[in-house]
Design a protein that fits this description.
The chain contains twelve helices and eleven strands. With 324 residues, the protein is α/β, with parallel strands linked by helices.
Length: 324
């Protein structure tokens, strides 16, 4: 699922030329606070990502960067909010594959168009998830979990507060030939609270959300969802290494503006976000969460999203998930 896209000199030159060609109002951008709208709740991986990025972005653009959490409804609320916002560069969607690639395959009808309603700015990073259980769980390995699920079909439950988390578990069910009950949440931190409390048996959670719980001893990681181990948890095998051959699931973070946002502003933001990823704060965040910076041009993000949506559709159909 990982596609790495980088800036091209030609694209940056074109963005700079567009900036000079627009009226003074665009050239002066920004002149007031910018909102980064997050589709998930406080403490989620996307929220942490947005807050670290906001600090570096504000230092470069010299205006306050405000993170707004509009979680719930599988990201619909945030996506709709940004889609309907003024296309002036002051309201941006800081999001993941959930709203832009997966939802169109998980739901029969969306209240927003993930392509037509947005102006892509940049892909920022990619990451993977950890399969979590409680420290006192009888499941000490992925084999233990699969064996228990096979012994009692439909008895074990898993939580998910994003499409990545949901589909990761659904794909595991499909590839391991087991059944388990899906319990939906507005965000992964809420699901983790219930996992710690014993209301659900397991879940996949993004590394930024999962690692502090694992490192603090509140949860145990059985496996990593990607094609290689998480650098911050090197002793945790991948799902494929743990026995489910061919399993590979990841997620990504990207920035979008409302459709119709001037190209010069999009270009300015593309450069600003790229610069923000070089800040010490962001580099430290990436190191702690084992994420990988994966920058793109606006056009590159559009192409990446189209290819990724196709892949999510294939994964979702393979997992046997029926659109709601």
């Amino acid at each position: 699922m990982n596609l790495r896209i980088t800036h091209t000199l030609a694209a940056l030159t074109a963005a700079a030329a567009a900036l000079l060609a627009l009226p003074a109002a665009a050239q002066d951008y920004p002149t007031k606070p910018i909102s980064l709208v997050v589709p998930f709740g406080p403490g989620s991986g996307t929220d942490q990502f947005a807050r670290v990025l906001a600090q570096a972005l504000g230092e470069d653009l010299k205006v306050p960067i405000v993170v707004e959490n509009k979680g719930g409804a599988a990201g619909f609320i945030a996506a709709q909010y940004v889609a309907k916002a003024a296309p002036d560069g002051y309201t941006l969607l800081t999001t993941t594959n959930t709203t832009q690639s997966a939802n169109e395959h998980l739901f029969k009808k969306l209240p927003y168009d993930p392509v037509k309603d947005f102006a892509p700015i940049t892909l920022v990073s990619t990451g993977q998830m950890l399969l979590l259980v409680r420290p006192d769980s009888p499941y000490k390995s992925l084999d233990d979990l699969i064996a228990a699920a096979k012994k009692a079909p439909g008895k074990l439950s898993f939580g998910a507060g994003s499409s990545s988390s949901q589909v990761a578990s659904e794909l595991l069910k499909q590839m391991a030939h087991v059944d388990a009950l899906y319990v939906p949440y507005k965000s992964n931190p809420l699901a983790i609270t219930d996992l710690i409390g014993g209301q659900i048996d397991f879940m996949f959670a993004d590394a930024p959300t999962a690692l502090p719980q694992v490192q603090g001893g509140k949860l145990r990681a059985l496996a990593a969802s990607g094609s290689k181990r998480v650098a911050a948890a090197p002793d945790v095998p991948t799902v494929a290494e743990a026995g489910v051959k061919g399993y590979d699931m990841s997620y990504w973070f990207a920035i979008y503006a409302p459709a119709g946002t001037p190209a010069a502003i999009v270009g300015r933001l593309n450069q600003a976000f790229a610069k923000a990823t070089t800040s010490e704060g962001f580099k430290n965040f990436m190191a702690k969460t084992s994420g990988e910076v994966s920058l793109s041009t606006p056009e590159g993000l559009a192409q990446f999203q189209a290819a990724d949506s196709k892949k999510w559709g294939q994964v979702i159909r393979a997992a046997g998930i029926k659109p709601e």
